[in-house]
Design goal:
Blueprint (H helix, E strand, L loop, with lengths): L2 E4 L4 H12 L4 E5 L7 H6 L7 E3 L4 E2 L2 H11 L10 H25 L1 H4 L3 H21 L10 H16 L1 H5 L4 H12 L1 H6 L14 E3 L1
Parallel strand pairs: 1-2
Antiparallel strand pairs: 1-3, 2-5, 3-4
Helix pairs in contact: 1-3, 1-7, 4-6, 4-7, 7-9
The chain binds glutathione (GSH).
Length: 210
C-alpha cells in the first residue's frame, strides 16, 4: 500500500491528497509536523519537504509528480485537459508555484521576511487578475470535474484569502472568489482536510485512506 507523508495545512500536500482521492487510490496517511519530521520520511527524501509518496518501486517527493502519477493511474474523475489546455495548465501552475507563492509568503510572513506586505499583496493581486482573464476565456476551468489546474492552484488562493478575507472579498477577481467558494465547500476538500494526529513509528498510528 502506498504511504503518504503529509502535513494537513500544506498546500502542496493538500493538492496531492486531492489527486489521490480523485484517482481513488488507497494509501496510508502519515501526518507530519514540519518542525519534527520523522526519520523514516527523511530517509526516503532527504530534502525534507512534504508531500512524499512511497510506492513499491519508487518515491515521489514533488506534489506535481504525485498528481501526475495519480492522474495516469485513474483519470476518470478528473477533467482531462485537451491540447492547448495542458500547456495553459502547466503555465498557470508554474506561475502560482513560483511567483504567487513567493509574494504570498512575503505578504503573510512580512515580519519574518522583513518586507512590505502591501507590495506583495498587490503582486498576488496582479496574478489573480490575470487568472480572471484566463478563466473568462477557458470555461473548462470551472468544469464540475476538478482539473489538475484547479486542485493545484486553489490551495494557494485559499491561503491568500485567509491572510485578509475582508480585503480578498472586496477585490475585482470575482471568478477566483466563486471558484474558491466552490473549492472550500466541496466534499473533496472536506475529506482531505480531516485532522490526524502526528504519526510516529512507535504509535504506528497511520490512517488508512480510501
Ligand atoms: N516543490 C515541493 C514543495 C513542497 C513544500 O515546500 N512543502 C513545504 C510545506 S508547505 C515543506 O515541506 N517545507 C519544509 C519545511 O518547512 O521544513 C512540492 O511541490 O512538493
Amino acid at each position: 500500500m502506498p504511504i503518504l507523508y503529509s502535513f494537513r495545512r500544506c498546500p502542496y500536500a493538500m493538492r496531492a491528497r486531492m489527486a489521490l482521492k480523485l484517482a481513488k487510490i488507497s494509501y496510508e496517511l502519515r501526518e507530519v509536523l514540519l518542525k519534527d519530521k520523522p526519520e523514516e520520511m527523511l530517509a526516503l527524501s532527504p530534502k525534507g519537504t512534504v508531500p512524499v509518496l512511497q510506492l513499491n518501486d519508487k518515491v515521489l517527493d514533488e506534489s506535481l509528480d504525485i498528481i501526475n502519477w495519480a492522474f495516469a493511474k485513474n483519470p476518470s474523475n478528473f477533467y482531462t485537459a485537451k491540447g492547448d489546455e495542458s500547456k495553459l495548465t502547466n503555465e498557470v501552475i508554474k506561475l502560482f508555484d513560483n511567483d504567487f507563492k513567493y509574494h504570498l509568503d512575503r505578504y503573510k510572513y512580512y515580519q519574518r521576511y522583513d518586507t512590505d506586505p502591501h507590495l506583495h499583496r498587490d503582486k498576488c493581486n496582479y496574478i489573480l487578475l490575470y487568472l480572471e482573464e484566463v478563466i473568462k476565456k477557458n470555461d473548462w476551468i470551472t468544469s464540475s470535474q476538478p482539473s489538475i489546474l484547479f486542485i493545484s492552484i486553489m490551495p494557494f488562493i485559499r491561503q491568500y484569502r485567509i491572510a485578509d478575507s475582508v480585503y480578498f472579498s472586496s477585490m475585482e477577481h470575482k471568478h477566483a472568489i466563486i471558484l474558491l467558494n466552490e473549492f472550500e465547500s466541496s466534499a473533496l476538500f472536506k475529506e482531505v482536510m480531516q485532522k490526524h494526529e502526528q504519526w510516529s513509528k512507535e504509535k504506528n498510528n497511520g490512517t488508512f485512506v480510501s
